């Protein structure tokens, strides 16, 4: 098995078939990664005080951080991280306690905070800050810090979202599979 794969309180990360985890990535605890997904250099995904779920054909690019918020009296469910299918998470993105739909492209350096919900078929511009609790509606481009809805996505942009994910499925296959399903 490649990458630094660690249990936390007896919970091991779990992987679907044909998943690529770069040797420098760190995956800890209650993390599930769906088939044909990829986790690239220097990613940290820490499912310690809550869980992380990453869908199929999703790519988490270099230097991303994925973390969660714990369960508390104020927040009985905490904030896990859920990432849908065919999502492209650009370099140096920070995802903390948020829900990302399917066919989403998150631009480099974006920060998505606790309680954010990103619906399906969304593009988030590089460097955007999505503050806690915000909902990004399906079919739109969002940019800025704090993020603002800019415009509806074109059909060409909507068609590109699964294509972006497919490009990373092909790339991870070039690198070779290195994680067995658990």
From TrEMBL:
Family annotation (PANTHER family): DYNACTIN SUBUNIT P25 (PTHR13061), PROTEIN YRDA (PTHR13061:SF56)
Pfam families in the record: Hexapep
Organism the protein comes from: Pseudidiomarina salinarum
UniProt-listed Gene3D superfamilies: Hexapeptide repeat proteins (2.160.10.10)
SUPFAM superfamilies named among the record's database cross-references: Trimeric LpxA-like enzymes (SSF51161)
Signal sequence bounds: none
Name used for this protein in its record: Anhydrase
């Amino acid at each position: 098995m490649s990458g630094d794969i660690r249990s936390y309180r007896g919970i091991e990360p779990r992987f679907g078939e044909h998943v690529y985890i770069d040797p420098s990535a760190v995956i800890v605890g209650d993390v599930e990664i769906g088939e044909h997904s990829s986790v690239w250099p220097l990613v940290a995904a820490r499912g310690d005080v809550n869980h992380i779920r990453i869908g199929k054909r999703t790519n988490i690019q270099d230097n991303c951080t994925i973390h969660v918020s714990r369960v508390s009296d104020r927040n009985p469910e905490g904030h896990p991280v859920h990432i849908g299918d065919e999502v492209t998470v650009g370099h140096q993105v920070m995802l903390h306690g948020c829900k990302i739909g399917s066919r989403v492209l998150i631009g480099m350096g974006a920060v998505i905070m606790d309680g954010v919900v990103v619906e399906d078929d969304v593009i988030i511009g590089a460097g955007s800050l999505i503050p806690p609790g915000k909902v990004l509606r399906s079919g739109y481009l969002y940019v800025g810090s704090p993020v603002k809805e800019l415009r509806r996505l074109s059909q060409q942009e909507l068609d590109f979202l699964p294509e972006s994910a497919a490009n990373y499925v092909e790339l991870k296959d070039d690198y070779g599979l290195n994680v067995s399903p658990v």
